[in-house]
Design brief:
alpha/beta, 2 domains, 5-stranded parallel sheet, 17 strands, 26% helix, binds flavin-adenine dinucleotide
Length: 296
């Protein structure tokens, strides 16, 4: 199958691009490997998206975006793009089921969590170590430790603290997160541990959980923290692992020629916010409309 435009990812960027392409009468395929709405599904409360006075739960905003797709008659193709290559003025996309070609591609695939390194060992901590909050939302009465000091760490804590005992462990002297998020965490009883440099994770027998050992500062004993689950929020990186190396090298040139568009978090560095992502998707769709959408 050949399509004029393939959109990879149905988060705020991909969804906004899709809605605008539909308005422009340009054919496209919207591919999503997991949940439409993207990372919004993980956000506790979104207060800085236009038109949502008082804020809205991320999952609710994601649901509204899905409804907007449905209202526009846009189908989300459930597929993971496993390979993307460019040659002969076309993009070739491979999914688990099929191979497609597209004249233009909107990369709206967002970011993936940075994998935790030592002393966190994914194998020995299987079932206990997480890099996203969704699998933990049903946890009740557990002790959960979150490693990280940014907005995401606080946001995760706010999602979990109502039903669990939550600790945030940060290496530096204080959290980088917005003060209002830190304050909300404090009010919900989240325990904040600064200068916590994790050096060892002890896995206890049976279901007893984990003990997190930190390097002690002189005169201060951080001791060990017992928890059942460990969640990392230590940064994210563009989800571009499926790009062929040649395409990755040619990205700046193809972007300049407006054959490929990086829309949303995937190309926004540290400015990862839903409204910015949506704006990126909208702009990509408008630029495609302006440039014409024929397969070349
Ligand atoms: C805990 C947390 C709290 C947040 N709070 C806020 C907030 O309060 N306000 C705010 O503005 N923003 C917030 N954000 C950030 C916001 O969610 C993101 O900026 C926004 O979702 C980015 O949109 P996006 O479309 O660029 O990427 P994403 O939302 O990451 O969507 C990308 C989509 O692409 C899909 N995908 C990736 N690779 C492939 C592939 N190979 N094949 C097919 N599909 C693929 C993914 O499954 C995903 O659905 C928060 C984020 C987190 C994690």
């Amino acid at each position: 199958m050949t399509v004029p435009v393939a959109i990879i990812g149905a988060g705020p960027a991909g969804i906004t691009a899709a809605v605008q392409l539909r308005r422009s009468g340009i054919e496209f395929l919207l591919l999503e490997k997991s949940r439409a709405g993207g990372l919004l599904n993980e956000a506790n409360c979104v207060e800085n998206f236009p038109g949502v006075p008082g804020g809205v739960a991320g999952r609710l905003l994601a649901t509204r975006l899905k409804r907007q797709l449905a209202a526009a008659g846009i189908r989300v193709e459930k597929a993971r793009v496993t390979r993307l290559a460019y040659g002969g003025r076309r993009f070739t996309l491979c999914t688990e089921r099929e191979t497609l070609t597209a004249a233009r591609v909107i990369l709206a695939c967002g970011t993936v969590p940075v994998s935790p390194g030592p002393p966190l060992d994914a194998e020995s901590l299987r079932g206990r170590l997480f890099t996203g909050v969704l699998p933990l939302l049903k946890a009740r009465g557990e002790t959960i430790a979150i490693i990280g000091g940014g907005d995401a760490a606080c946001d995760y804590a706010l999602s979990l603290a109502g039903n669990n005992e939550v600790h945030i462990l940060v290496r530096s002297e204080r959290l980088r997160a917005l003060p209002l998020l830190v304050e909300r965490c404090r009010r919900l009883g989240v325990v904040l541990h600064d200068n916590f440099r994790l050096v060892r994770v002890e896995v206890l027998e049976g279901d007893a959980g984990l003990v997190l050992h930190a390097r002690n500062e002189p005169g201060k004993d951080n001791g060990g923290i017992c928890c059942q689950r460990l969640l990392t929020a230590i940064g994210r990186e563009p989800a571009l692992g499926f790009l062929e190396p040649e395409l990755r090298a040619a990205l700046p040139e193809l972007a300049a020629r407006k054959a490929v568009f990086l829309a949303g978090d995937v190309g926004n560095g540290g400015f990862r916010q839903a409204a910015i992502a949506a704006a990126g998707g909208l702009r990509a769709a408008m630029e495609i409309h302006e440039g014409g959408s024929r397969c070349t």
